[in-house]
Amino acid sequence: MAKPYAEAAMLATRLQRARTVKRLSYNALSRLSGVDPAQGFRICRGDFRTLSHNVMRICNALEVELPAGNEKSAVINDSDPTRDRLIAELMATWDQTAAGAKNIKQLLAVVRQIQEEANPAK
């Protein structure tokens, strides 16, 4: 089960401020983030409990980072917080299409190859 994100109100304030500074309507934010305008409005006013992929997409579109030290609050499930943050970031970049999934898979294969070349098995 997803843990509630304790800093939702603070993050929402930062999102709303960034949206205002960038002079983005919710429709423009939707185009930038790939999140429905109504969902973007809901997220920017703090009406969310967890750091879902839509929340992360809004954060990425507005270039708002999570406050340092809140990784435990960002846990999507009860496993490793670092792993869960990585999954959230990955989900935020995926456009939820088969082609997008294929592109991300290819990119990850290249990253894996680079890691293997940099750290060959001993």
From the structure above, extract its key features:
434 Repressor (Amino-terminal Domain), 6 helices, mainly alpha, 122 residues, single chain
Verbal overview:
It is a single chain. The protein is mainly α. The chain has one domain: Orthogonal Bundle (434 Repressor (Amino-terminal Domain)), CATH 1.10.260. The protein contains six helices and no strands. The longest helix is centred in the C-terminal third of the chain and has 21 residues. About 8% of the residues have low confidence.
Oligomer category: single chain
State the distance separating the first and last CA atoms. Answer: 39 Å
Overall pLDDT level: 80
Count up the domains: 1
Total helical elements:
6
- Share of helix, binned: 55-70%
CA gyration radius, whole angstroms = 16 Å
Main CATH class: Mainly Alpha
The portion of residues forming beta strands comes to under 5%
Question: Could you please say which CATH topology applies here?
Answer: 434 Repressor (Amino-terminal Domain)
Report the count of strand segments.
0
Order of helices and strands: HHHHHH
Largest sheet: none
- Poorly predicted regions are 69-78
Structure classification: mainly alpha
User: What is the CATH architecture term?
Assistant: Orthogonal Bundle
Global outline: elongated
